[in-house]
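Reagents: none. Just compute today. EGFL6 protein.
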Amino acid sequence: AICGHGCKYGECMGPNKCKCFPGFTGKTCNQDLNECGLKPRPCEHRCMNTHGSYKCYCLNGYMLLPDGTCASSRTCAMVNCQYGCEEVKGEVQCLCPSGGLQLGPNRRTCIDIDECSTGKALCSYNRRCVNTFGSYYCKCQLGYELKYVSGHYDCVDVNECVTHAHSCNIHAECLNTEGSFKCKCKQGYRGNGFDCT
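Predicted 3D structure written out:
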């Protein structure tokens, strides 16, 4: 089976037919599926969509059970947690619905961890890290775009000279470089390529 546009998070099952891995959707399986919007809802109380998955959490005063349901808990109500709580060895601890969140100084509310600045993010050399609430994603570096090349997705250099996304003078030549471009004044003109006289 050949899928001309590829299947980013899935497998090619027939001519341009992708079977997406759980948590993904779209013709080329390149979109995250928002499980929180599905019917029936996957969580009893609150749901947080994550890349390729989701996390359940409970209203204040409830405890999250392993099956995603919420049980009323007097101890949780007393602690006043933002995202529900769990009891560990008789001790009540507030929960954060994602590994990209951590308990704040008050031990009740959750604050975001900036994986991009802490160095926890894993992005390949040609991608840059973008922090989100509770997570992060890797985006192509400036001057590169995501393209399907020889069987997989990769960040490929944008040729600004072809796409006319350059700011060279009309009397200058545009020279494409990896991730950028250069301008050189044409013969008979002097300048830096952006200003030619």
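The chain has a mean pLDDT of 85.
Action item: order primers for follow-up constructs.
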